[in-house]
UniProtKB/TrEMBL annotation:
Subcellular location, record wording: Cell membrane
Ranges for domain ABC transporter: 54-288
Record membrane topology: Multi-pass membrane protein
Gene Ontology CC: plasma membrane
Keywords: ATP-binding, Cell membrane, Membrane, Nucleotide-binding, Transmembrane, Transmembrane helix, Transport
Superkingdom as given in the UniProt entry: Bacteria
A GO term for molecular function: ATP hydrolysis activity
Keyword Transport: yes
Main location: membrane
Protein name per the record: ABC transporter ATP-binding protein
Keyword Zinc-finger: no
Length: 306
């Protein structure tokens, strides 16, 4: 692990946006129990246990110093609620997620948790406050049990199993050749996309952080898998401030609030029902999705993006 530390530091300095690498680096820091290579400022604070309100305030952002990607974006995510980020491809949803993960800092304005600027929160504290579930679940070459335990290293086997049950993963794990002791990762058993997502959700549930950041996988899942992932997400989001880049209509329908992002700006935000009652961009997109993709009486399977 120590040998892995130097490359991890380099990766971190490069601000790699590759999600799996980020998760790997983040987890390695957790394991090594030592500070991130990006030093905290001297006045950085460990965040007190608050409500978990997340906010972008007048945020502007550019990757290259020229082309604005986000412009004067103010977006408040209410504590304990689940907000689905939707909108056309290229609108800035992933960029918002990157700012929340502090892979980048905004060029203008600031991002805050419970009123404190992320730049003033120690990285360790920020890491403890948030759980991230991305599109590509990073699996260590270890057992299923240890991979879930990455969520909280001091968790007991019973805690791991409880989290796996909540994430709808227990049954498939028990059907593996050695159950929770089955090796996964590079030389381990192959897991389907839906199974990997549920392992990742089990980790997040085990971590029990007040803020959950989720980039839902775009890969197609069969109907059974999708229903299980949907239930796992419902369980993982319960009682947390959740921000989710939603690719599935069922996820949008399960969210408390919708934020429609286009061209780096917030176009509309509010509860699903309210947005559907106005003739806005979200209602148009939603109705197109529902009428175009869903067979009568069945649940639409797909993408809320254009
Ligand atoms: P999608 O739904 O397709 O993932 P999105 O709404 O998440 O899109 P972003 O991925 O945030 O949108 O992209 C917003 C804009 O920023 C796009 O024009 C994209 O090309 C650009 N962009 C994204 N990541 C980078 C990067 N690392 N470097 C430079 N430009 C980037």
């Amino acid at each position: 692990l120590l040998m892995a530390y130097e490359p991890a530091k380099r990766l971190s300095r490069m601000r790699v946006s590759l999600e799996s690498a980020f998760v790997g680096v983040q987890m390695m820091f957790e394991i090594l129990d030592r500070p991130d290579s990006m030093a905290d400022p001297a006045d950085a604070v460990a965040l007190p246990h608050g409500q978990g309100e997340v906010a972008l305030r007048n945020v502007g952002f550019t990757y290259d110093g020229k082309r604005p990607i986000l412009s004067d974006l103010t977006l408040v995510f209410a504590p304990g609620r689940t907000t689905a980020l939707v909108g056309p491809s290229g609108g800035g949803k992933s960029t918002i997620m990157s700012l929340l993960l502090r892979l980048y800092d905004p060029t203008e304005g600031h991002v805050e948790i419970d009123g404190t600027d992320l730049r003033r929160i120690t990285r360790r504290s920020l890491q403890q406050m948030t759980a991230f579930v991305g599109q590509n679940t990073f699996l260590f070459s270890s057992t299923v049990r240890e991979n879930i335990r990455m969520g909280r290293l001091d968790a007991s086997d019973a805690d791991v199993e409880r989290a796996a049950r909540s994430a709808q993963a227990h049954d498939f794990i028990m059907a593996l050749p050695s159950g929770y002791d089955t090796p996964v990762g590079e030389n381990g058993i192959f897991l389907s996309g839906g199974q990997r997502q549920r392992l990742s959700l089990a980790r997040a549930i085990l971590k029990d952080a007040p803020i959950l950041l989720l980039d839902e996988a775009t890969s197609a899942l069969d109907n059974d898998s999708e229903a299980l992932v949907r239930d796992a997400i419902a369980e993982a989001t319960r009682g947390r401030t959740t921000i989710i880049i939603a690719h599935r209509l069922s996820t949008v329908m399960g969210a408390d609030d919708i934020a429609f992002i286009e061209g780096g700006r917030l176009i509309e935000q509010g509860p699903l029902r309210e947005l559907l009652e106005r003739p806005g961009k979200f209602a148009a997109l939603f109705n197109k999705e529902v009428s175009g993709k869903a067979p009568a009486g069945a649940e639409a399977e797909a993408v809320v993006e254009e």
